[in-house]
Every structure is written in structure tokens, then in C-alpha cells.
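Table S2 (text version). Query chain:
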Amino acid sequence: QVQLVESGGGLVQAGGSLKLSCAASRGTFSRYAMGWFRQAPGKEREFVAGISGNGVNTGYTDSVKGRFTISRDSAKNTVFLQMNSLKPEDTAGYYCSSVAVLSGSRWYRGKESYDYWGQGTQVTVSS
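Corresponding C-alpha cell output:
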């Protein structure tokens, strides 16, 4: 079973930046597509970004395109989410997720596609 541990959340002013990390233990990291989701109080968990097992292909929800960047370091079994130009509406708990894949070139948008989840890290953006 894959264990995921997020870090890097915190309090930041609007316009600032944060970089989230998600360390994965167990399994062959390159065989897992990874994703970042977020959930604000009273709202559904929503897709933020996804990256393929080979790290080549990525996808983002429209509201973060041009501001957030997902990446992965296979040597460190870690996936990152660089968040720039943060807005108060980005405030949420951010969750890392993974799924074992046969195709290393695919990423996934739906939360139902993922098998493993981290405990989350809180991001709060003040106005």
C-alpha cells in the first residue's frame, strides 16, 4: 500500500507563493500517476492538477492554469505543487493522491480514479 505525506502548507498573503510536497513510500513511483486535489469547508473535493507516471503530461483545472505547476522527482519519490499568485479563493486543504497505472503517459482528473490519498495540508491565503 502506498503512503502519501504532504507538507508545505501555511498562511500566505494574496499574491504570494507556496510549494507543496508529497512524499510517497512503497511501490515503484514511476508506475503511479499523481494528482493534487483541494477541499474548502462545506465544498466538494475538487481536482487541481495531475501528472502522468513518466512526468511528461500534466493537466490543471482552469482556475489555476498559469499560476500552479505540478512536477515530480522520481529519485525522491516526491510530487510537488508550486503555487504562485495565490488568491483567497485558493484557501483549502490540499490533498495528494496516486493511482497505479499501466500507461505511464496518462494523468487523471476524477477523484474516483485515485486509490491512495494523503492526510492533507492546509493552505490559507489572506486578502
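Notes on Table S2: The chain has a mean pLDDT of 95. The first strand starts at residue 3 and ends at 7.
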